[in-house]
Amino acid sequence: MMNKTPTVFYCFILTIIATSVFLWGGRATATKHEDIGIYELNNGHISLKCTNWGAAIISLFLPDKNGGFSDVVLGYDSLETYKNDTTYFGSVVGRVANRIGGAQFTLNGTHYKLDANEKQNMLHGGHRGFSDLVWKVTKHEKDGKSPSITFAYDSFDGEEGFPGDLKVMVTYSLVGKHKLSVKMVAKPGNKATPVNLAQHTYWNLGGHDSGDILSEKIQIFGSHITPTNDQLIPTGEIVSVKDTPYDLLKPSVIKKKIKDLPTGYDINYVLDGERGKKMKDVAVVTDKKSKRSMKLISDAAGVQFYTANYVKDVRGKGGYVYQAHAGLCLETQGFPDAVNHPNFPSQIVNPGQTYKHRMLFTFSLDA
Fold it and tell me: Beta partners for 183?
């Protein structure tokens, strides 16, 4: 990739308690836990911006085959818009990502009723999940060889119905010339609790304002899925993708496969390879026009592949209006509704244990 910094900057609104300040490029400095700011990481090859509202990624500039730079992340111009967002653009979702059927579960003999925010179910942690909260910035190195930022949040016992206190940290780092590392760590207090964090960026390797992602190719290293009912709650089955539109084991143009689905992809893949701490292949996405490629590896058990099926008339950065399939999400995670399916890998973290979740995105121009 070329050693070149982006020339395109967007206007963002910085909310500091009750005051809105416009920023052009650069970053804001948040000095209090209540402050919301924009923070940049730049290693001279790629540039990432994020915010402590929802620990969200708000832009990532990558070069194309001609040396030009584009922002490949869907998002908004202002932080105020992120606060009213319903798409989870770029955010960290939890305490439990994805869906919990009936917004309830039983743990160690105690029944917990959660905040239902999608009909009778819970999605991405409830009405005030981790994506809708101010995180504390505990470390920020803007540039250098491996710039990074760490966000922290202390979730309290009973928040959205979940048991126990939980200390959470998320670190974004630019490593090497063109890699983005995401590390998530969570430690419970004196109660066992489910934990399943996910990163919810919408990617479009052609550029966030380039149209849909249907012409992009994708390969997902999962030979099984966890099928769902009409409310997208897993049935508890684990089935093969063979002879279905979900078979993406070989690089496939999305539009050739998606046409056989009612609205698009929104399904959890069971990743092949050994479960546990070892990093394994998740997916490879390529864009023919820009020649950009993105490879993702993770230590998670699954990945939710989502093609922005329900995005409609969303006004994004630069006034561009996003529609269905404007981006794709690759949300590495534990299996959805695992608290209600004993045959799924457990997401329960006990006091004294540490939840860890790692992702590594590698970007290149070898598409």
Answer: 171, 358
- Residue 148 near residue 174, CB atoms below 8 Å: yes
SS3 254: helix
- Tell me which residues are annotated as active site: 200, 331
CA–CA gap between residue 79 and residue 75 (Å, rounded) = 10
- State how far Cα 39 lies from the chain centre: 18
Q: Which has the closest alpha carbon to 120: 102, 108, 133, 137?
A: 102
Q: What is the pLDDT along the chain (367 residues), one digit of tens a residue?
A: 333 334 333 333 333 333 333 232 333 333 344 699 999 999 999 999 999 999 999 999 999 888 889 999 999 999 999 999 999 999 999 999 999 999 999 999 999 999 999 999 999 999 999 999 999 999 999 998 899 999 999 999 999 999 999 999 999 999 989 999 999 999 999 999 999 999 999 999 999 999 999 999 999 999 999 999 999 999 999 999 999 999 999 999 999 999 999 999 999 999 998 877 799 999 999 999 999 999 999 999 999 999 999 999 999 999 999 999 999 999 999 999 999 999 999 999 999 999 999 999 999 997 5
Looking at residue 132, what DSSP letter applies? Answer: G
Using CA atoms, how far residue 155 sits from 94, 115, 165, in Å, is: 10, 15, 6
Is-contact 149 55, C-beta < 8 A? no
What is the DSSP code string of 290-354? T--EEEEEES-SEEEEE--TT--SEE-GGGPEE-TTS-BEEEEESPTTGGG-TTSPP-EE-TT--
- CA separation for the pair 121, 138 (Å, rounded): 33
Tokens of 350: 């006990």
Q: How many alpha carbons lie under 13 Å from residue 16 in its C-beta half-sphere?
A: 10
- Residues in CB range of 156: below 8 A, 6 or more apart: 165
State whether residue 205 is helix, strand or coil.
coil
Amino acid (1-letter code) at residue 120: Q
- Rounded to the nearest 5 degrees, what angle is found at the Cα of 60, between the Cα atoms of 55 and 61? 160
